[in-house]
Structures are given as C-alpha cells and as structure tokens.
C-alpha cells in the first residue's frame, strides 16, 4: 500500500490501480471549504494513466453527514459543492462511492455524482435539507429522480426522511451492499476488490432519462407530502423542483435548483430552523463544577395509566429494566396491554421485529407490590394529580429505596418543593414532566426544586438523552414553562372567542399559521373537564383578571370533548370535528348576557394576538428566572405544543422585530387583553438591533 498523501481534511492514496480518496473531517465528515478543496485537489493529483477506478470514502463511521450548517450563515465560497459534484461526474475514470453511516444531504449528493454506490447494510441515506429550510443544492433534486424514479425522489426530498441501505439497494439507489459490516481491514479489502475488478465504465446519472409518471398522480402525492409539512416553505419549493426533472436539460435544471437553494438559504424560515438546530444541541444544563452523573439501569414507574404506561414504554425502548407498579390489578393489566399494543403497531408498520418486542417485554416487570421498587436507581411517579397523595407516596418511597435513588414526579402543575418536604436526602428529588403520549412526544421538562442537586440534574439530562427527549431545565413554578405558555395562549384565544370569533375560525387561522392543531380542537382532544376542575379552584381570585366563562358553560351542558362526542365541536363515528350550531348558540347567548357585541376577526389578527400572548408570557418567564435559557421556551413550544418549527418560536420571532416594534405590539396586547394583564419587558429580548 502506498503511503497516503494528505490534503488537509482529505487524503489520497494509491492502492494498486485504485485511487482512494478519504474524507477526514471528524466527527461526521461534514462539507466545509477545506473538504471541498481537498476533494478537487485529490482528483487533480490522480495519475489517470495507472489508475482504473477511484474510490470515494470517509474516515470513521460516515461518508458525509451533510453540510456544516454554520456555512449557511455566510455567502457561499468557492469551491461550492455543485462544483465538486460536477468534477466527480466529469472525471474521466469511474468513481465508486462508499456509502456508510449517515450519508445525508451533501454526502448523498456526492454519492449521486459518482458512477457506482456501494453501501454498508447499516447505512442511512437521505436528502433532509427541507428540515433546515433549504432544498438540495448540488444536483440532488435532479440526480435522485433519475436513480429511483420521481415518486420515491419526491418522498425522500419533500418528506426529508432518510432510508436504510437495504431499501436503497432494493430501489436502485445503491448498486451493491457490502458483506463486511464493520469498519476495518475486511471491509476495506472488499471495497478494493470490487473497485479492482470493476469494468462498467462511467455511468453518470445525468445521462439517464427520467421515467414518465402520470402528472395528476404525481401532483396528488406532492399535495399529501406538503400537507404533512404543515406549511414548511422549502417543502413546496422542493416539490416544484423535483417534479421539473426531465422537463428541461440537465444543466438548466441544475441552474434552477441552485437558484432556489440560494434564495432559500437566507430566508427567515431557514434561519429559524438553523437556530433551533443549534439550540437543541446545546447543553440544557451546565453544572458549576465537573460532575459525574449517576449510572441508571433499573427504573421504576409508578402508575400504569396512559401516562405511566407511555413513560414505561419509552424507558424500555432506551434499554432500561422497568418495574411498572400499579396497585389496581385491572389498571395494571390495562397498562401492560397498552404497551404491548404499541409494540404490535410498530411491528405492523415495519419499525420493529418480533425479536425486539420480546426483548423489550422481557425487561418489563409489572407488579402490584410497592416493595418491588427497592432495587431501582430511579423512581418516576405518574399517579393522580393530588398533592397530598403524591406527598404520602414520596414519604413511603424514601423508606423503601436507597438514599441515593432519584425520586421524580411527573406532575404538570403541583409544587414539587411541597412534594419533597420531609424526604430524606431531598437533593435527589426532581420533576420529570413528560408530555402525552410520552412514548411519542419529544419534550421533557426537567424541573429543579430548591433542594435538587447538580448531580441529580446532570443524571436526569443523561437519562433524557438516552430516552431521546429534548430536555429543558426549568425552575419549580406553576405550570413550569410549557403549560404556563399554553395557558396564556389558550386564554387569549378565549378572549377572541368572547369578542366575536368562532372556535373553528380561530383554529383554522392558527393551523394556517403552522400550528399542528388549533386550541379548541386540542381542548376537545384532551377533555374539557380537566381544565374545568382547575378553573373551579380559582373562583376566589377570578375577579382580579378578565375571565371568560364560555368554557364553563360548554362543560355545564355536558360537552366535555371527543370522549362525549361533543365539545367545542361535534364528533361523529369518524371522530372528525364538525362545527356545531349548538355551540354557536351558547356563545351568542353568553355574549348577549355580558353585553358584548360580536365583531369580525381576520386570520392576521387571530395569529398576531395568539403569538403575542406567547411572547409576552415568555418574557414573564424569563423575568422570573423559570427558564435556564431563552431558547428553552422556543424548544418547549415546538416539541411540546405543535408550534411551527420553521417559524423558530416566539422569542426567535421577537428578536427579529426590533425593540420598538416589540414594545409597541406588547402595548397593543395589553390594551386588548383587559383587566389583570401583566405586560412582559421587551428589554429582556436581545433583538437584531441590540446585537448589531
């Protein structure tokens, strides 16, 4: 083997008649100026007279997991990735890409520009650029349809979800799967042997025709994909550019693709998505000194209801042994059945094997005996939302488990400091507020009590990563971050309902803005009686602020949401929400009794007031120190409450407005909100002006 010649983050070595180009930019070989220059330099140094084929691979586990997103904050510099893919496609010798690990975005575009693609069986391939607000910009929208057909290319580019190498091989994106699964000598020898015997010549995808697909069928598929994207601007552009494949020359299509890519990269949605990408990867908590988190292997979950069984399932899937405790035998059986049904559904969708299901269930230990928690490293309580009941449970747990065992409550609103009172070693007590359904929702609020230690918090953050949650650290405060924000948002929507808007108009406007579901549909889905009971507890202080009684009247006539078939909407057998004249009559009667003359609302006002309610409450949370970081508020709303990811979050939006506009808007919100409204301090937001 010849000694490798190095070129910064790209290495070139000659192995017999095969030239091997190795991308070496840890940890994922992302595309940077140095990598792109290195590839072009390596191609320029290859002796084409003594070489029959070129292998393009990556050091470590990946070929290339995409671009360095920080580069998108600045103007593009040469060489650009399209220049590199063009050079690979035009190189006089066949180029063989080794697809491994995460080969995504620009990494897959490099592979598509090559003549042959080999892949390890565990590799994932995809063009997820829409998830960061752009489209593939180095030929991906044109080469992929020529490799796998327009329908699959649409699915991969507009949907943005990667596929496994086995599927990629089946659909023709990968030419051959490697048998050697581990990085090492055997795999290298297999790749080299393939390249040495390869005689297929150049096979550029640019020269392939795009298979014809009925235009109406393609449009219908695109509309379904766009509906799932919930208004993500880049998705619509991606659909348009992919469907144009084959309708003009390849060169013209590449120019159009690049123009759209450049136009999108500086757009506000793209900046919002990049902001969230980096915010989610920052440490949610940094201890004041170096701390070793505790090791957790066995977790007890108390309560086998919908929340408890969901928590148990996501903890099982993370590899822990789980004791699921429920004193009621019927409830315990139901909880285990829910877990089994979820796993069976995953098998049906092709996401899980029966062997994996059996392995998970083997680590589940259902029990009615509270003494079973004795050997746990952490206990998560998910029982009834009653302070006295939880306090009694924690006192009992403290006597059963080791003095270092973490004790966590899943409460949504209760004072965790009160729950921790009297517990030995209260430094181990904290809140772990999951969102329902716990096995699917990504947000996890890690709640710090007055006594919670930094080691406990660090352990909880390590746990959150293992269960694949987006964790934010919050102070012990009513509603913590998420529920308090949502309460302010819902309250403002109730104000607009009182003033003249209908539930369906408000829901439609906010869904058009990008929310996953409007607030009144959400209320019906959750059940209106829970919030009703909470409101009844505020009777003594209700006079201090504006109060809308419409939700109470809705409940009083037995309309409690989907579970009763009637709430703000009517629900038939298909469970779809249908506007109900009875609700319109209830609201009209209420307005008449209160002397309120209904007025018309347009979408813009509904959207603006709802957004401002979130911004204002976010500022109050910052002022009170409930959040560790401003970005935590945006993360909470995106991952827990269906806020459109491509808008970044309320504080991201507030930063773009500038101080003068923000202050003016907050003043307007105070005027329309009425008695008891507490105005947030616009000065707490670092706007584009203050950062300039």
Automatic annotation (TrEMBL):
Pathway linked to the protein: Lipid metabolism; fatty acid beta-oxidation
Signal peptide boundaries: none
Assembly and interaction partners: Monomer.
Any coiled-coil regions, as ranges: none
Main location: other
Top-level taxon of origin: Bacteria
3-hydroxyacyl-CoA dehydrogenase NAD binding domain ranges (all copies): 299-476
Reactions performed catalytically: a (3S)-3-hydroxyacyl-CoA + NAD(+) = a 3-oxoacyl-CoA + NADH + H(+)
Any Pfam family hit: 3HCDH
Subcellular location: Peroxisome
Domain 3-hydroxyacyl-CoA dehydrogenase C-terminal residue range list: 479-571
Transmembrane segments: none
Protein name: 3-hydroxyacyl-CoA dehydrogenase
